[in-house]
Q: What sequence folds into this?
């Protein structure tokens, strides 16, 4: 099931305190960016955070899942808890590099 735009807007509202939030459709679902850094996946109206060592302590009790076929296991973020979601998004933003710009085709 594809994520709804309404759910995406809700997710962005929940993490708005983490920085400049936007989303982009990718591989049929959505990537959420904070300060132009890709931090969260939204697939099937579920929010996923990449399993990184920086999150291990915060997400120790979180459920895990695979956002799409072929992906590695991710943490499932409790997006209903806005303060926690903002904390996780801000932490991910601080350790995620900006994507490298794509070269334009001639």
A:
């Amino acid at each position: 099931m594809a994520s709804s735009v309404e759910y995406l807007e809700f997710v962005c509202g929940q993490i708005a305190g983490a920085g400049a939030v936007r989303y982009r459709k990718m591989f049929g679902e959505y990537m959420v960016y904070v300060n132009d850094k890709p931090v969260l996946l939204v697939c099937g109206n579920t929010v996923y955070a990449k399993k990184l060592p920086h999150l291990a302590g915060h997400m120790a009790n979180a459920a895990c899942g695979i956002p799409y076929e072929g992906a590695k296991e991710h943490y499932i973020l409790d997006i209903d808890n806005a303060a926690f979601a903002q904390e996780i998004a801000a932490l991910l933003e601080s350790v995620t590099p900006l994507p490298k710009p794509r070269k334009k085709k001639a």
